[in-house]
Amino acid sequence: MITVEQADRIILTELRDYGTELVPFEEALGRVLAQNIVADRDLPPFNRATMDGIAIGFEAFSNGLRTFEIEGTQAAGDTPLDIQNGTECIEIMTGAALSSTVDTVIRYEDVEIAGGKAVVTVNSISKGQNIHLKGKDKKQDDVVASAGQKVTPAIVGLAASVGALELLVKKLPKVLIISSGDELVDVSDTPADYQIRRSNSYTVKAALSRIGLQADILHVPDNPVIIKQQLLYSLQSYDVLLLSGGVSMGKFDYIPKALAELEVTQLFHKVQQRPGKPFWFGTHADGALVFAFPGNPVATFMCMRRYFLPWLNAVLGLPNVKSFYAILSQDISFLQPLTYFLQVKLSFSEDGRMLAIPLEGNGSGDFANLADTDAFMELPAEKNNFKAGEVFRVWQF
Amino acid sequence: MITVEQADRIILTELRDYGTELVPFEEALGRVLAQNIVADRDLPPFNRATMDGIAIGFEAFSNGLRTFEIEGTQAAGDTPLDIQNGTECIEIMTGAALSSTVDTVIRYEDVEIAGGKAVVTVNSISKGQNIHLKGKDKKQDDVVASAGQKVTPAIVGLAASVGALELLVKKLPKVLIISSGDELVDVSDTPADYQIRRSNSYTVKAALSRIGLQADILHVPDNPVIIKQQLLYSLQSYDVLLLSGGVSMGKFDYIPKALAELEVTQLFHKVQQRPGKPFWFGTHADGALVFAFPGNPVATFMCMRRYFLPWLNAVLGLPNVKSFYAILSQDISFLQPLTYFLQVKLSFSEDGRMLAIPLEGNGSGDFANLADTDAFMELPAEKNNFKAGEVFRVWQF
C-alpha cells in the first residue's frame, strides 16, 4: 500500500498533451490559453479624456489666460477637433480622443460657460490632467494575457478590446464517468430494500461541469462479458475513465480483471488514506488513464478532488495546483496509520486567517455531511493527534 | 456624494422576490434551493457490508466457534441471504444488504476458505464490525439539504440518491447588460483612431455566467430617441439593467434624462470611491432595478462585483455575503478621501493566512492589470496610509 504522496507522484507522472483548439472568445471562460493575447494597438489607443469639461493647451493657461473661446464640442466617438491657437478650447466628453493641439482637460465643475466662452474658475491645474495617455496601460504588440493563463471574465473583456475573436486554448481530455454494481438503480426508479440509486456519477459530473469539463456517464452491470466490451469501447473513445465502485476484493468485482485483459497496466492499488483506501490507478497502452475510485460516495468525491483535479491542472499546464492551508479549529484524533481527509467548513476570520471547522458527523463515509462542508482537510498519516491551531492543507470543493 | 457603506445599504434595501421554478436535479448546480431535500428512506437504507468477506452471527463466534459453513454467496444488489443457524455464514460483498440473521462481517484477509467452509484466522473481532448500519447517516424524512442552500456537486448527488428528480429553486432575475457610447465599435470591427471596441459587456456577461446567470447584451447609440425607446423596452422586459457608461456629466449622456422620463427614480449618483465614483443607482416604478456603472472597464467590473453580486446573493436569500479578509503585503498610500479598491493577487501562506499582494500597475483604471490579479482590496476612505500586515476586506473575482 502506498502513501498519498506516492500516489500523487505516480499520477502526476502520467501527463498527456491533448492539443489545442480555437474557440470564440465569448466561450473561452475557464479555459487555459495556448496563445498570448497581444494588444493590436496601444491601450488606450489615443489620448483619452477622463472627465467632461474643456480641453485646452496648457501653455496659454500658464501664461495667465483664463477665458477660452469654445471652438467646438466633441463627444466620445467623434473625430478629434483641433484648436487654431491657445485662446481656444474644445468642449470635450469623457472617452473622447484628444487632438494633438490640446494637452489638458479641465472638468465642468471648474469652469463657467456662457456666450460661447469658457471661464476657468480655479487657479491651479496641472499639465496633462484628466487625460489617460495613449499607450499608458499597454503598447501595441504588448502581451495582455499569456499562454498558460486561465481565461477569467477580465481576460474575456481584454480579448474583446483587442479584437481577438477566437482564442487558441488547450483541449480538455474526453472524460467518461463509469458506475458499476447491480445494487445501483436509476435515479427515477424505486429501489428494492437491498438496492440504492446511482448518485456518484452525478456528483462527479457536476463537479467537473463547474470547471467547464462536460463528461459523459455510463453504467455497467456486474456481468464480466458486458464489462469487458464496454471498457474496450471506453478506452478507445475517451482519454480518461473515472470509475466508481467495483475495485474491491469481492468475487463479483470484474473490473480489475477486465482492465488487465484490455492491457491497462495497474500503477497502484490501495492508498494509505481514509476514505478511499481501495483507490486503483492504471494506464492503457494507447494512452488512456483509468482512475478507479472506491464506490463509497465520499471516497469517490474525495479521490476525484484530491487526485483527478490536480492531474487535470497539471495536464493543462497551470503553474501549480493552488495550495490552500487552513487552521484547525479544534482538537481531532485519528488513530490509524492513514492520511485522514477530514470534512471541514471553511471560515475567514477578520484577522485574515482561514479556519477549518470539522464536521465529523458519522465519520468519513457520511455523504450527507458533504452538503454542509466545503473542503477536505488533509491530516497526515504520521500523526494521530491534531491540535486546534495547527495548520494543514485543505482541498476546497 | 454618499459613502460605500451608504450605497451598500440603499442597494440592499431594494430586494425583490423573483419566485421559484422546478429544474431537473442535474441542472440545479449553483442554484439556490427553495425546498428541503428529504430522505425518502433511511440512509443507508439497509445494514450494508463495507468489506468483502463473510457475514456471521457474532454470538457463535463469542462462544468460540471459528469454522463456519458457507450457506451461500451474496453480491451487492442480491436479495439478502439468511443463515439457518449460528454455524453458518454467508460470503458477502461490499455494498450488499445484510439479512437480519447476521450481524458481523469478517473481511477476506481474516478468513481462510476451503471446501465450502470459512475458518476465521483472527481471535479478536467486534460485534457489528464492517457494517454501515441502516439509518446511521440519516433517517427517513430527515432533511439532507435545506431550503436556502446553494446546490453543490454533493447536493446534486444527494438529490440523486433520494430520487429527487426535480428540485424547486429560486428563480434568477432577468438581467440585461447595456453598453452605450458612439466611441464603441463591434469586437469584429477595426476601430478608427478615436474609437475603441466594446468590451465591458463581455466581461460582465462572463462574470455572471460563472455563477449560472445568463444575461443578455444590448448596445445603444448616443441618440436620445433610440435610447429612450430601448430603455422603455428593457425596463418592461428585464428585472435588472446593468449599464456601463453614459452616466457622467457630459452633454451627450442622454441616459440619466431618459431614465428620469421613464419613471426610474434615482436613489443615488456618485459614491466616495475609486474607481467607480459616478456610479448611479435607481429603481423603476414597476420594480426593475438600474445599476448604471461608469464606463471605465475597471470601474464597471468593480461595481458589478462589489454591489451587484452581493445584491443578487441577498435576493436569493443566501445567508450572508461571504466576507473575506486578507493581510496587506506592503505599505500603500492613497491620499484622497475615497474608498480605494486596490487590485491585489491573493496568496495562501503555509501558516493559514491569506495575503493580498498589490499590483498597482498604472493605477485603479488599468484594465490590463485585472488579468493578473484576483481580488479588489477595500481600503477605507477614513485612512490614507495602509501598512503591511493590516487586514482589510477583499472581493474575489
From TrEMBL, chains A, B:
It comes from the Bacteria. GO terms for biological process: Mo-molybdopterin cofactor biosynthetic process. Pathway: Cofactor biosynthesis; molybdopterin biosynthesis. Residues 176-315 form the MoaB/Mog domain. InterPro entries: MoaB/Mog-like_dom_sf (IPR036425), MoaB/Mog_dom (IPR001453), MoCF_biosynth_CS (IPR008284), MoeA-like (IPR038987), MoeA_C_domain_IV (IPR005111), MoeA_C_domain_IV_sf (IPR036688), MoeA_linker/N (IPR005110), MoeA_linker/N_sf (IPR036135). One of its GO terms (molecular function) is metal ion binding. GO terms for cellular component: cytosol. SUPFAM superfamilies: MoeA C-terminal domain-like, MoeA N-terminal region -like, Molybdenum cofactor biosynthesis proteins. It catalyses: adenylyl-molybdopterin + molybdate = Mo-molybdopterin + AMP + H(+). Pfam families: MoCF_biosynth (PF00994), MoeA_C (PF03454), MoeA_N (PF03453). Its EC number is 2.10.1.1. Belongs to the MoeA family. This is Molybdopterin molybdenumtransferase. It comes from Mucilaginibacter terrenus.
